[in-house]
Design brief:
The protein has 23 helices and 24 strands. By secondary structure, it is of the alpha+beta class. The strands form five sheets. The chain has an eight-stranded mixed sheet with strand order 3-5-4-12-13-14-11-15. Strands 6-2-1-10-17-16 form a six-stranded mixed sheet, with helices on both faces.
Length: about 650
Amino acid sequence: MKVVIIGGGIAGLTLARLMLQRNIEVVVCERTIGATLLGHAFLMHTDGLDILKEMQADSDVQIPGESVDSFTLRRPDNKEIKRMQLNSWRCMKRTDLIRFLGALVPKENIKEGRAFSHFIYNNDTIVAAAFLNGEVEYGDIFVGADGSNSKVRELIHGKVKFTPVEVKEVVGVARNPELAKQYIHKFSKFQKKESGLSFGMIPTGYDEFVWFMQYDPAISDVPDASPEELKEFCFRVLGKFPPVVHELLAGNDFATTYPWNTRDFDLLPSFHRKNVVLIGDAAHVALPFTSAGTTNAILDAKVVMQCLEQCVNYDDAFQKYYDERAEGVYNHISLGRELKKIFLNPPKDDDHIPVPLIAVETNTETLRKNKPIQVQYFTDPICSTAWMIQPFLRKLTLEYDEHINIEYRMGGLLPSWQGYDKGGISQPSDAAEHWEQVCAINEMPLDGDIWNEDPLSSSFPPSIAFKAAQIQSTEKAILFLRRIKEMVFLEKKNIINWNFLEDSAFEVGLDSARLLKDIGGKAKVLFSKDLELVKKHNVTIFPTLFFSDKNGNSYTIEGYHSYKKFEEVVRNLMPNIEKAKVNTDPKFLFSKFNRMSEFEFAFLSNINREEAKEVLTNLFNKGLLDKYESKNGNMWISNFK
């Protein structure tokens, strides 16, 4: 089989490399000679990076770019309205990625100076591609990877109807080593509140940035501008933006900067016709708000290769490729259009401004509410017994997650020390002694010294912070609660302190700027509602878990009980329930819970403590784990990639 790829951009070179790795004959036909300066730079998601790593195998060529670890959104007056951790993104220049891919494809497989003209047929079957320079390339399969204005697409599908240009972008790469050092690994964006205007900047290394300005051309525009006119336009419309914006633009070469008309077209009914298939922008275009273009192009190449390997003939392979990619592509097109509407007509509420990236969290609320067993879990960030049952709750989610939804409620364990007297505890020193006693008779580590060194005055502030986290994401709120528990139980950090709450929120992927805002508003109301439920259900012991099914059957667990008790309650509600078989491979367990105590790992792995300690120590020595050492035990932290 011989494959002819028309277009030597990212999609075409990616497919060529994947095919060459499988010993498939391939020729890449590119219209330009030498690398083009167009495209500047982009963000790539881990879905694309993983494929680049696969292609890099058996090669010394390094993947270009810099990781992007955080996103910050500010107003032109520099007020921060969003701040989030990013775990799966990398910024790279287009020319660097083209060079990377080109180094993985032998020069003899790339034919430059070939601008596509037409196909040559034999009995209604395409047998060759003809080019404007008079050259012809014969093959069995032809791939259109010739960009958004694809001539291959036009020949097999006709002309597409592009959407009108309602947003324009100016894109550039500017050198500024001092700023790059300050902003390394950070995606910073400034966006006007009243109308469609924003400026974004991302370091591509330690001395330069890619930057972009998105704007509504109906308000102001500069068509067919010279470099001087474009520079004047950018400085004028961004006049009230922070000094860092102007400092960055001052180092920009506007001779290599250009305005870009952003547009897309509807999802095609198919991505192929007979032995011709489309990939990348030739097959689909999403508006730039999603940062999806490059990742989608690389994914297309990977899926086409997989489908050709899995199917008997190319027609079935290309249909399978469409079936696998169409929904995701459609979602990105739709998301881009929705983000465009929001950009042009900004919402009054800052909470509804989305992060301009494709990795959008799925709303699982309906799925959770429909699970057959519902659990109301009344707990508190400083409840030592709730800390003791953490391993049981984790195992419950591994074995019965398909059937059980746990809804977290804050119980308000410590309003203040004034007049407090419960369970023999009336002052911080009592809590210190109690924690040490609990640790002595249980297997989860905790350190009571915090109550002597930096005692919390109340558990209400971290409880309200948890309710603020729930507003953003149920799943991330649980991670946030776990993290602040580790801080207070092991690291002796007073989690009333905003800096610790902010660090925890950022670490688990929450928007810390929004968290702070909600702590002072909506979260207080939600916490009050939890306290009302505490009174309604007469909850006096923490933790308390109310298990119920749709038939009105219910069971209650109060305080500390063994995992056997939890399973007993679940089986009383669902006698025929089948628990999932847990994968006990350390890499899997740490992918589910990236921080575990020695006892948690042993319990989830179904091994004894000595075996667990040996496994964890070996992984630590290999650099696959880190550890936090506390007075009464360690917390093991994943370094698995």
